[in-house]
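Entry 14. Ran structure prediction on the chain below.
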Amino acid sequence: MGTSRHQNGLDRRALLQAAVAIPAAGAAVTAASTIAATPARADSANSGGRSHFDEESPRFALAVLPDTQYLFDADSADPEPLRETFRYLAAERHEANIAFMTHLGDVTEHGTEEEIGLAADTFRTIHGKVPYSVLAGNHDIRSSTDDQRGDSAYLDAFGPDRYASMPTFRGASPDGYNSYHVLRAAGREWLVLALDWRVSDKGLSWAQGVLDAHPTLPAILTTHDIAWSDDDGKAQLSDNGTRLWDGLIRGNDQIFLALGGHYWPPGRTVLTNDADNDVHVHITNYQDRYYGGAGMIRMYGFDVVRNVIDVQTFSPWFLARDPEKRSPLEAETIELTGPVDRFSLDIDFGKRFAGFSPVVPPAPRPPAAVMPRGTVAYWRFDTSGTVAAGKPGTSVPDGVVVRDLSGHGNDLTVSRVGAAGQDALTWSADHHPGQPAHASLRFDGGKSPDHGAILTTAAGAALNSEKFTSGYTIETFIRLPEPFEGDHAWMGILSWEGRNGDAGKTTGWSPLEPTCSLNLSPERFLQFVVYPHKQDADPTSWSHALPIGRWTHIAVVNDGRRTVVYVDGSRIARNPTQRSTGIATLGKPFVIGATQFDERFGQGFYGWIGDTRIVDRALPVRDFLTPLA
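Output, structure tokens:
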């Protein structure tokens, strides 16, 4: 049964007043905001969106549906809220990339054939549109029994036969009350266990067998009764939850998320398993809310790029209503925004899953594999790119040559500027995970006095005079140190030597500025400024603040008309609309590691620089150096 430890302790902070509705973060709430004006209908999904789930996208959603029992309560039943929830999930599957829905039990109030039949008929709204699992709660069967209870109206309607046609369904326990699904999302497989309200020893053994048969899959355990919470939202394991924890969860590192209903108010906690890893335990139940929860769903938005799960809770049925006609209780129950209903979980998925599914880093890619048509220059800092690659941490002496692997002779030579010592440039095995070469150079430039290390093309190199009038793509990888210490405002990453004033440009910030440079502002914003070959202008792109402590891929793409900068495969906001054709090069060297001003080098770069490539045309994102862009 749905149970409250403090039934009169309703947390009013969790209510969202419709007059001051604040959209929650993530795709689902964006979709929800749209639904408020345009009700979701099943025919929206039938138009083609229902099957368009992107298995490879790094972002996907898991929909969690708790106790719906008051919507299927004898002669007071009203399935319409749940039908609207199912219409929403079907219609928004593509936009929100909804991978799966799981029901946490107590589908009905009394578990009668009539209630179960009506619920089963309601589930037809979503059947074939979004895969799902359902498990028995204590109101769906005889609550004094475990999964060995035998036949029941629930088993007839929600047993294994219901899921047989779903591509995610992989099997059920011999009794039929426990099942599991394997879904593919974010480029990998995930396991969902749906366990009966009271799992027998046989059921636990079956579940262990499922985990043993899928030892590399991260697992989400769903059941009806696992934890309860006080009004403060701090969850504690129930007696049944303790049995599951000791008998299954704590010893299986794969289980990182355990979800249950049954009790209210909602709550959450984090427990530590035998592998010393976090297991997130959540209670989700809204039957005590207006209209028995009104088919309210909780969306878990997984983002494996940001390493976060964004959680939000809302009622599609209330969202679908005309805002002018919503009652006060409907308006205040549209979305719940308290700390146990709307929150984010920071999970480093690679690290969390490393114990059972370690990430195998990609092998280095040979130079020939990453030099498309039009490659003008390509440098890397492993043995294929240098005449004498050293061991990680050793100094790179002046005079070392980094070969241009494109074969166009744009080799780079190392030198130091200012008061730089031997440690100003060292070899490193650190690299972006998607970088072709598994090596980089560590620059230790700075100010007061200016010092650093640079790599420059030789006088007469073809790159020095290349105009790129048909377009260009300039790519590099950088990593800023953590902590980012000292004053490194306006340090250069790469540039061409030569003053724009000498190229006849009159409209720029200063005639002493180089004709093309990629720099970092005091706020760690990228600045790409170019003086075009054909126009008298200085169109400048500005990024957001770059992160510290991790690698960043940068691509500058010009199609012969305009320039767009991408950071980690994402187009930045502040790209100029000014026409920009070519680069006003002056036959002077190309430089990695610093930028000249008035033909004098200031401070050198501070951080790591990896593979750098220049192509004489605009490349699409799919052809960037990193497949992770």
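The longest strand covers residues 606-615. Will compare against last week's run tomorrow.
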